[in-house]
Queue: 4 jobs
Job 1
Amino acid sequence: MASTPRAHTPQSTPFRWDGVEELVYKESDTTFRDVTRRVLAGAEAGQGVELRYFEVGPGGHSTLEHHEHTHVVVPVRGQGRALVGTEVVDLAPHDVVQVPAWTWHQFRAVGDEPFGFLCLVTCERDRPVRPDAEQLAQLRSIPEVADFLRV
């Protein structure tokens, strides 16, 4: 008999859920700074999606990347900024960010507290792709993007 996913996962402290392990953001990539992730609901829930919580420490940032799968991101803690395509946007709790397929994106914390966000993706997804030198130069040709990027 297959196991039934938990119907309720309480928070033991704010932004920490009982029985949910803090994971390394990425195993084989070093182009990020001070990012953790937690899988709140995954394939076992039978929805075909995975709900993850990412936390970016003060001064931290995610990897600059793109891929075929899409993201829906909802900030829930602190303040942040994001690059989505060639647009840099300020983020506050409960905003909604949609990252289309093959769109460059990167998230950064702003201020002295962690920036936490929920991220919804499909369970089946492709590997992220980092920019090559030509793509990075093209992104850096946009002054606001160049000021934002951390690579």
Job 2
Amino acid sequence: MNRTVVERKSDREFVATRTFDAPARIVFEAWRRPELFKQWWVPASADLSLLSCEMDVRTGGKYRLVFRHPAFDEPMAFFGTYTEVTPHERIVWTNEESDQGAVTTVTFEENAGRTQVTLRELYPTAAALDEALAGSAEALPQQFAQLDELLAGGS
């Protein structure tokens, strides 16, 4: 069974890794295509609904994800810009919804038909990282497990 490892690397950065039993081109598509991305991105245990998912995954493209949580009256939007996209290898994006947003880098390294995904998030402050890790440490393993299930289903 594949396991997700989430580690704090510095006072402003954390890294999550997991190996998937699929080639990099297939795993990359699950991050690039909105119809696939929305099947695995929201952790099943989270009390969130993904209302909209707009993604133009290319260098200079934009994304906007809108969520609803029952504790909040208004939907929450997360958005930013893809600053680097190398098909089947790397995606880098900004998180622009606040001045405490991270720069996220995801790499895809294939070996013998399996792909190691490494997600790095670099925050502007240690406090922003602390806040992010409070949710990410639980959410990312669930998200990556859901991605694993999607990939196993052959989508």
Job 3
Amino acid sequence: MDRLEAIIEGDYQAPVRDPFDIDTDRLFGGISGVPSPAEEFALGYGLTFRRTYAKLTAPYILAFAPPPKPSAPNPGPWAAVGEKSLTMDLELELAGEAKLGFNRINTLWFVVALMRLKMALPIKMPVLSDRPFRTVPENTERANVFPVEVQLQQLLTAPVTKPSNADFEWLRDNLSAAAELMKDPVFNRSFQTLDGGVHSQNAGAGIVIAWASLETLLRPGNARITERVCRALAAYLNDPGPERDRAFTYIERCYAARGGAAHAGTPPEAEQLQTAFRLARLALLRSIERRERPDIEVLLQGWRTKSVA
């Protein structure tokens, strides 16, 4: 009761948080938007997924009277306005040094971004903690807990599906190769462009960003851009034959939707937006699986000769 009264009066001083060195101590990222594949799933490189539960609630609180002094809260009554939340069923631990070429926080970010790429789900890492989330309630005031990805705006860039164990196994098996490709400035820029596109304010901006990611990856040059991008992408994602020819026609129509959004302000349809993101994801995933960035001239030569590029 004394503590509550001190808080109300603005005189309460919280205890000092536990010592924490972000460069050496264990890190735990709470992940929303995806269930845990198991009670525990090891990725390697000091990274482990574990099942957990935490919920970040983000209401706007409307007060109607000023506080008695600056250090005190506004007195009630209050009203919650527009409450939204993010539920975290999965945590990702990083123990020891970062081993993938990133600093420790960006190591966690990269794993989550790779999950977004592979699973096409609105996955976020809202909160970072210095301890497992299940132990935070033991002493909430001494725990070091930080907000990370708390944006509530996110485009729906694919139909919602349930991830499988195979998705997590792919992540484990391709994590090192993907991190190595991030050393290539072109792949890095394409990857980060697409990853940021899910936070676009509207579908028109989103479709432009998805195609910008593809253009960055393929580097079509300044002439005959539509033809070169669409042929190269069809050749990259399809084997020679009628299916590849049909894919080119389809990709060309999708690219036209991007032009309408960029030059005429025409909002794309949901399917056009999702197709743009699906094509960009497939191209980046193929790059990771092949362990190399695509060469547009090789792809176009394969298109002309109807051979495998």
Job 4
Amino acid sequence: MHFGRQELDAPTKLVGFVVGIAFLFLAALFVGDKIGPDAGATAATPHTDHGAHDEGAAAVVMPAGLQASQGGYTFSLDRPVVESGAAVPIAFTIRGPGGAALTDYDVMHTKELHLVAVRRDLTDFQHVHPTRNASGTWSTTLDLTRPGPYRLFADFTPAGGENITLGAELSVPGDYRPQPPSPQPPSPPNVTSSTDGYSVTLAGAVTAGTSSTVASTIEQNGRKVTDLEPYLGAYGHLVALRADDLAYLHVHPEEGPPGPTVDFTVDAPTAGMYALYLDFQHEGVVHTAEFTIEVQEGQA
């Protein structure tokens, strides 16, 4: 009888086991049906947020001149370290997406390429226009009588493309004494500049994140200059550099009379101190006035 009871209980346990497995399977399907979409949504949420982050990141425009390479183009100096001197030879190439030297440019402000050099302490500003040979190598000379680290900016537009400004470091060994002491930017703001007998003043507030207008007024020996001569296709050319990292700003001259006031549109990406350099031509000579301004915070 004892053995007979075991034979009777085994099928009963087997049936119970099968029913239990079936119940668990159905329960799993039920729970999966209930939580599946939420789990999927949870898994998709990081992807969605990442996409939103990418869109926001794409909307942020990197200031010009902070990179040696951008969009497949590279600013390549032949010699990143040069000797000090009054007319030091400088040679470089702009390499295109395929690695070859770029030889086809659009003309911008009457030139294929603008080269700006400034010492890291924001002194010794130079704006020159190199010559290019058939192989695509650009050459010029710079006044590097004051040793120290320099930042070079190549401002150009590939034929049929967008304007690009690339930056490269140039070192001039010697006794480097920053003016003012690095890394502090020049302070306080200076909106009046005297150069070669000319007095130049800047007017107008610049706000970060918006297009702002600054007006430069030029006087010579106390008289307003009303016969400025075109320089690079306009009555003035303004370069702006962010003091903290030497980010290069594209500044556009506005059409107007040949003085005494020349207006410019400035797009500053952030608040802070900026150095401005105004080139203007009068009586056949190009002069440079230097300023320091403080850009205010914009509205969020």
